[in-house]
């Protein structure tokens, strides 16, 4: 019996045609990745208990791009987990979610008509519903990166999931989920600063969230105000999402990959972008070095300024723009 690491091919609902690192076990191939901490993908069979069944077949070709084929959503989720692993490794030298080399499980086809996805520390897994009528899985790559990043936040800052720290927790997932989408740079999913723009959660093909102008979703905050922490964490996140967009790309209007952004600022503050790669380094260092479970927006400003000082120096352009970008979302000194 031969066991080994293989390269299979998949067609996801959202990722398009991609290579997958799989495992050969006898005459079967499995969605298990020994090169990335044993990450795997399981079929929940539309149930909600247990961890489901490992995807296996005899061809090492997975999915056909349609949601009707049970393997297609698995291709998205498994590929998304692989790109998230690679992103953290290559960008921050982080070896898996807990930095211990252990890969996470992705569970697809959870429940029926389930319109959500979530991370759970206790199973060290992320889980995806099949969406409306079980025909719209929530397996876009920025969602995969978002959910896995909840595991990273839990293993590092441990930001409490309520109040302003909850907004920072959610924003950390949106920021790194977006970074994973840019890292993957898929022709089938041109990277952008919007969240869930392919999964049609609103039924009218609009994204779930907009980092350039969070209020475009009708609920999120563009900037800080006293009481912003009373919003749902998926809306108070807007302040930090907007900060990250501004720090990356700067204020004003911009078009990238065919996506049109217009990022207004408080008091017409002018921000000059330092690029998303540097902005992500600042955020990751703040998250893993300075954030605690109770960090609020004022604390996040201090933490990112310290991180930028560590990385680029106190008098650097990068540090100055961190301060300017926070001012632009009404988080002051
Ligand atoms: N998809 C949601 C999220 O990851 C689930 C939740 O509300 N925690 O934020
Ligand atoms: Zn989340």
UniProtKB/TrEMBL annotation:
Its cofactor is Zn(2+). Its main location: secreted. One of its GO terms (cellular component) is extracellular region. GO terms for molecular function: metal ion binding; metalloendopeptidase activity. It is found in: Secreted. The keyword Metal-binding applies. It comes from the Bacteria. Keywords: Hydrolase, Metal-binding, Metalloprotease, Protease, Secreted, Signal, Zinc. One of its GO terms (biological process) is proteolysis. The active site is at residues 147, 234. Belongs to the peptidase M4 family. Extracellular zinc metalloprotease. This is Neutral metalloproteinase. It comes from Kitasatospora atroaurantiaca. The chain holds residues 201 to 533 of 536 of the full protein.
